[in-house]
Amino acid sequence: MKYLETPSGRVPLPAFFPDATYAAVRAADFGAVEDAGLYGCEMNSYHLMTKPGAKLVKALGGLHGFSGYGGVILTDSGGFQLYSLIRENPEYGEIREKEIIFRPDRGREKLSFTPEKCIQAQFQYGSDVMMALDMCTHPEDPPEVQRRSVELTVAWSRRCRAEFDKLAAQRKDGRRPLLFGIVQGGSDPELRMECGRRLEEIGFDGYGFGGWPLGANGELRPDVLKMAADAMPDGKIKYAMGLGKPEEIVKCVQMGYSLFDCVIPTREARHQRLYVFAEGCESREGVRRPDGRFYRFHYAMDDKHARDPRPVDENCDCALCRRHSRAYLHHLFRVNDPSAMRLATAHNLRFYGRLMELLRDE
Fold it and tell me: Cα dihedral angle (262, 105, 159, 98), rounded to 10 degrees?
């Protein structure tokens, strides 16, 4: 079995990190993450910079001390959020050669976000896994935009590496975090390979998929994910950032990815959709079905569950399935009790934990 070695512990691979955007898992606590058999969480650098601020987090013991979470913490660079806002409305700022200029109120106030500040913030957070700053693109963007993305991503990654090495050398506790680079290049396989090769020359502990994994029709672009994975050096962690649905994770593992994060399991739980393995599919062979149909949704608010004494999944050992019936969960959602989302989230997290266990080599 392969592992990701971090200052906060060893993570068996493949691994899924639920999103804890503001250092909190929506409708759950970190105990639910641990009980689910998940070893880490992904937290959002940009949002934490706005609320409560990197300096406050550092003063309270970093993200581990601030949140009380003892597992592995991965923080993104913040670049994707800035890119998304600027792409949506150019009044939010612009991407320059040496920095990203961001205007949070679309007015006179402006913030300069540089590769150095990106790394400095993640050191203030005390992150176990840090991401280098990149320039994100959409697969449908024109070639000149993709080329600029690669050039800026490589240049910024080099500056991130230098700042990371400087700050890591200053640490007195001997806890060396990991730094991942991000492979850009859109839907151009040669550009992806070039970006991966140039990032490998700089040297990183792992590499993440850069860009948007969906096409114009909103469907997953497995070809783009595959060319990015092929551009990452073998023997290093390959991280499919922002993915995914259970069937997407299975496909990506086959491409060589071994680390994932996404809001999907917690978001689906809040919308009364719970994951259940299809009959006969809770096995290593079952989850690799070519059609990807190894699970189904349990819709908690369906009327047929109102008098059903069975657990949501008789083979699941989460807090919901061990103690409560489908009827009880239906009732909790119907009366809008907060524990409904908490129990449903614990279940979906455990589904992802079980899926990871099935995808690991013995």
Answer: 130
